[in-house]
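user: can you give me the structure for this one chain? tokens are fine.
assistant: on it. calling the predictor now.
[tool input]
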Amino acid sequence: MDVFTKKITDKDFIGKLIPQKAPFVMVDKLLHFEDKKVVAGLTISEENIFVQNNKFTAPGLIEHMAQSVALYTGYRFFLKKEDAPTGYIGAIKKAEIFQLPSIGKELVTTIVILHDIMGVTLVSAETKCDGKMIASSEMKTVLAN
């Protein structure tokens, strides 16, 4: 599988890799991709539907982590010249939110693929802001049939 470190920040291209559509898009850049790992980013805007009182909320952080997994899957399918599948969060285990980031901050989320079997992907996720870990989780995503 390909590895790249060139950032992809074209929002239209990113939008083609994930099933979510505006205003529900919670990733806006692909920072790193390799076989069992992806690093995705999001700059928090005041228009974001998960912003309250100038802070990005906990549900937004969880959705951002899940969409980072979707970005991994979508880019994998793009490399195979196939359409990105739709997926769902199957389970969230051990989600921890340490801090809510403010508008204008950039989230950098690293997803490590622990298991990927028959459309079920188990991952660990860590989200950083200004170099500090602000959220982590383990989640299971499931591809739709």
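assistant: here you go. The chain has one domain: 11-143. Residues 73 and 104 are 27 Å apart (CA to CA).
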